[in-house]
Amino acid sequence: MKPHSPQGIIPDPPFIPAGGYGQPVRVVFHNALHDLPILEELGVYVDPAQAEDTMLMSFCLGTLPLSLKPLGRRLLGAQQSSFEETIRPAERRLSLQYIRQALIGNECPRCRGTGRQQMLRVDGKGYTKPVKCLAAGCTDGYLWPPTDPRIVWDWKAGAWKSSQPWSIAKYLQRLRADIEAGKFEEAADGDEDAEQEVVSDEDETGQHATRTVRQRWHGIDEDIRQPVEAVFGEMPEATLDDIPAGTANHYSARDADLTYRIYPKLRAMLKSNGLTGAYKLDLSVIPWAAEMQRNGMRINVPKMRALSKRFQREQRDIAHQLRGLTGRYINPGSGDQVADLLFGARGLSFTEDDAREITPHFSLELSHEKRTSSGKRAATDEKVLEGLKLKYAEREDVTAIVQHILDYRTRQKLDSFAVKLSSMVDSASRVHTRLKLTTAATYRLASADPNLQNIPIRNKGGADLGRLIRECFEAPDGWCLGSADYSQVELRVLAALSGDDSLLEAFRTGLDPHVLGASRAWRIPYEEIDLGRRTNKKYKDMRDSAKNLNFGIVFGITPRGLQAQMELRGLHYTLDQCADLIRMWIHETFPGIGQYIAEVHAEAKQHGFVRSFGGHVRHCPGVWSLIPQVREE
What we know:
With about 625 residues, this protein is mostly helical. It has helices at about 30-40, 55-60, 70-75, 85-105, 170-180, 215-220, 220-230, 245-270, 275-285, 285-295, 300-325, 335-345, 380-390, 395-425, 465-470, 490-500, 500-510, 515-520, 525-530, 535-555, 560-570, 575-590, 590-605, 630, and strands at about 5, 10, 25-30, 50-55, 115-120, 130, 150-155, 160-165, 295-300, 430, 435, 445-450, 610, 615-620.
């Protein structure tokens, strides 16, 4: 029976069904890289080479939502409950059981979870009075470990305060009360159309509001969750197995029905927009990506855990050194405390109740250029700190303190990554990442849970700590890991697209394009730089500067970005010098590149999109904006 709609019977999609006319069967997925591993766990194997993917189709079009429900609503006017809505009753039930178990299982036997006990008052009146439970280890009626006090900034009082967080029991009781009160039953699912937005390469971390009990639980501080999860395990995650079979079958059938019905519409849209070739190019990646997900990467877990302990030890050492430089204790991972150290409290004072550890008060009183989104304090992210190093390069005290903060945060980030990787391995000590074809705006593969593409090699602090993480990945016995890379592939593609005679000639004759660029920019013979760079730092710095320019211009580098890249190599340039270098590079050194960039900008302004060499379309309506910052993006 065909599915019905308000308009009548929906016709079958125009593709050959199983066994039809001897043609190979095409299996239509919505996010094949997610569904294929699940099917394999259920004992159903589908050849990835036979897959079609409606999410990938929508991504190639670039103007439609990626999520199935809003996509079906946009193309068919179909309405369907989301997965969160479908499993919400089961999630509520399982979460409530987990919280109740955590409370009852660790209840104080003396006060029975009340936190108070009856005491006989000896004053001749003979009545009892409830007092705080005196049982050893009892906190708010339960035997969970107490939480440590924290130093927080009180914006209303304008002072640092010692704050006692809620006890573990109080967090559990509050969450139980919210679940029982039905606060998660009518939680908004948000506008799923927002999922159509493509996350850029620079920022692939989408922040979403808390919507479910599990998200609320995982948003609680780790010091609260860890003791509970160590005893009772992780909070259970509801699946379709936890809801009535009829409800699960209806939801699953509707999902399959929507995918089946939107496929021919998306295929027709790809054809009319000239994107069929780009889609097939991306589709050909699925078999390889699926195999990579399935195989995973083997990790030396003991080595990874030892590395985590080393990072934690170095964090403590850096915090101690920072205290010696500043005369006060701060947590370098705290944005509030770092902002106060670098930029001052701006008239905010300390009271008698402040923690002794943070006195005497010391601040560098630097000027700041950027604030957090809330506007409450100056921003202290990595880009801001690197900018401070450039701005105050002549002040050794500033650069030393900022570098210590960066070193601490680098180790903190790597430690967190090492702990996460160690906890995600399977029985064969392999970690399996999720590869995504529909995340990066440049159509490259992205990695998540965990992100194995985000392990740094060269740290800004100078130590190759990222390599230590990479060394924990190992091949099985009798095998080895290999690394291969195209030589200067970005420049070769740029030479082919721009047709710049100098760059093309360099690759044809085997010249080093970085030395060639340095030779033309600084008016020095090619041979002098090529021979001298091996023994003379001056020539080596010239080639390094040219290398930053060559690769930076491919990705639209700005003067400030070039300045930061130069600083990483120990080269000091002003913003004006960097701007002059970029201008000279695209107009004099390699004029064909400058002409190509101008043509691409003109195409974007005319059509509102540009088309890649592989046929992909990148929509950029921001080129018509009246705001300069939006146009530059």
